[in-house]
Amino acid sequence: MSELSHLAATIFRRGAHTNRVIVAVAGPPAAGKSTIAAEVAALLPEGSAAVVSMDGFHYDDGVLEQIGLRHRKGAPETFDFGGYESLLHRLKAADADVAAPVFDRSIEISRGSASIVPRDAKFIITEGNYLLLNEDPWTRLAPLFEITVFLDVPREEVERRLVQRWIDSGRGTDAGRAWIDSNDMPNVDRVLANSRKADVVL
Fold first, then answer.
1. Checking phi first, is residue 52 left (phi over 0); if not, alpha (psi -120 to 50) or beta?
2. Which end of the chain is more exposed for a tag (fewer CB within 10 A), N or C?
3. DSSP 161
4. Measured distance CA(32)–CA(3) in Å, rounded
5. What strand order describes the sheet that includes 123-128?
6. Which of 171, 121, 128 is nearest to 151 (CA)?
7. What pLDDT score was predicted for residue 176?
8. From CA 85, how far away is CA 191, in angstroms rounded?
9. pLDDT digits (tens, 9 = 90+) for 107-124
10. Looking at beta carbons, which pairs linking 135-140 to residues 24 or more positions away fall under 8 Å?
């Protein structure tokens, strides 16, 4: 059995006596969180799982300009933590369909209420860089997760993927290299150095 199949089986068993299981998939930028979350969801019974990304709670660039954090976009303090926490509480209740925002990377904008998590989705796979960050206020999320997963990708590989992401975007490698060095890699190091131990490490 593959690692992902084993994880899906563990998640399925956890749902035997509860209406909803929330699984956190954390790791540094470019670790493959969204891909893993989607693959795990696909291994669960059809229609039983939904994926929710923390990235939907990125502050808009205009807001970041106002608060002086545009140069740190993607750092923990550039997310609407309270909004994400509230969403998780609503999902935990499992008593209604819940609308969730989606971050559109092609335009670097979060689209509000762009997805619906059905009331009858037993398994919620939520992914994001800072779900296990051992800093306030992020530690408040811990009681909301039944299972936590951390993607342990070598720093060098994460950096290579970040560079490739910039190349694929067509925005220029020089600008990308500067952004990666000044912003992305500090975020990577923060996650790698200061995340709580997960139930499962992939």
1. beta
2. N
3. H
4. 15
5. 49-53, 123-128, 21-26, 147-150, 200-201
6. 128
7. 83
8. 19
9. 889 999 999 999 999 999
10. 135/76, 135/194, 137/81, 137/85, 138/76, 138/81, 139/196, 140/85
As a dihedral over the C-alpha atoms of residue 83, residue 87, residue 88, residue 91, rounded to 10 degrees, the angle is 180
- Main-chain dihedrals φ then ψ at residue 85, nearest 5 degrees: -60, -45
Look up residue 45 and give its two tokens. Answer: 């019974």
- Amino acid at position 16, single letter: A
**Contact in structure between 105 and 79 (CB atoms under 8 Å):** no
Residue 78 has pLDDT above 90, yes or no: yes
C-alpha Rg value of the chain to the nearest Å: 17
Exposed / middle / buried, residue 188 (Cβ in 10 Å: 0-12, 13-18, 19+): buried
Q: How far apart are the first and last CA of the chain?
A: 14
Q: Which residues of 119-149 are buried (b: 16+ CB within 10 A; e: fewer)?
A: eebbbbbbbbbbbbbeeeebeebeebbbbbb
Tens digits of residue pLDDT in 135-153 = 999 999 999 999 999 999 9
Assign 3-state DSSP to the chain and report helix, strand, coil percentages, each to 5: 50, 20, 30
Catalogue all structural domains in the chain, each as residue range(s) with its CATH number: 3-201 (3.40.50.300)
Nearest one of 153, 174, 160 to 28, comparing CA atoms:
153
**Predicted structure pTM score:** 0.96
What region does 113 belong to: left with phi over 0, alpha with psi -120 to 50, or beta? Answer: left
Three-state SS at 20: coil
